[in-house]
Model the fold of this input.
Amino acid sequence: MAGGQEELHRRVGYELKRAQSALNQAMDRALRPHGLTVPQYACLELLDQQPDLSTAELARRAFVTRQSMNVVLRGLITAGLVQRPESVEHGRARPATLSPAGTRALSRARRAILVIEKVMLAPLSEQRAARLLIDLSTLTDALRAED
Amino acid sequence: MAGGQEELHRRVGYELKRAQSALNQAMDRALRPHGLTVPQYACLELLDQQPDLSTAELARRAFVTRQSMNVVLRGLITAGLVQRPESVEHGRARPATLSPAGTRALSRARRAILVIEKVMLAPLSEQRAARLLIDLSTLTDALRAED
DNA sequence: CCCATGTCAGTATTACTGACATTG
DNA sequence: CCAATGTCAGTAGTACTGACATGG
Done:
């Protein structure tokens, strides 16, 4: 109950930032040879997991605004990795899907990323890694519940 | 040994990003009324913990380049929160320090940030929070060791 | 009317690389 | 000569806000 909690509080932001910074840098280095940025890779993963997502939906899942996601998406379309219909019969949302080239690019990029994630988790036991993910998720939910 | 590890690997990047995104957003909202950005606040904290750091040293501790830190620092100097000597007797490094106004601004901002960090850690026991920080640090070190 | 979406426009901040002079 | 620092310049990519039209 003493100052121990204060210390924890002061460090959680720092450790999170440090971890994300290291991961981001490592991912960026790994993706560069593939001509992808980290947000672009994230977008490809989202579309692979669930095709036909709209820009707005992709934005929510990547934690950015529609406008930012639109820029990322445009880059991927220009590169021929993502396709979107010019118009749709119903509604405004134009669902995006991976092109064959996009699927191939994601496949290659994913291999590089998996190596990084494996290295990162290597020092932890499987149980401990699982608990880490749960706790991270708990933190996030606590923050988002404050809105 | 089965596909369980694959699953963990696939999720660690996502959970880290999600947590950082939520924290960043919350901090940004909390700091805006104080006229500070997240990197600016981080810089003030670093200078409070250890005054007279050079731009390059601040950059290393904030995980950015000298050039980026210089921009952040210039904003803080313009706002009158940080002071740097025009020239130094010895060497090139110009140590930065908090001005009285900077100390006051940091003090106010820190209160807002501590609330956020407290909310974030509230769902975890002290022991579990401590373990989380240790594990995060371990992950980061594993990544950085790869360079 | 309301809400979500897509999109245009403008801007800010952070962040990077490259280059160069300076200091020890 | 070399390493670290500060700094100028240019650029990229992400991200934001504001605004407006459209579709259900």
Q: What stands out?
A: Residues 4-31 of chain B form the longest helix (28 residues). The helical segments of chain B are 4-31, 38-49, 55-62, 66-78, 100-121, 126-144.
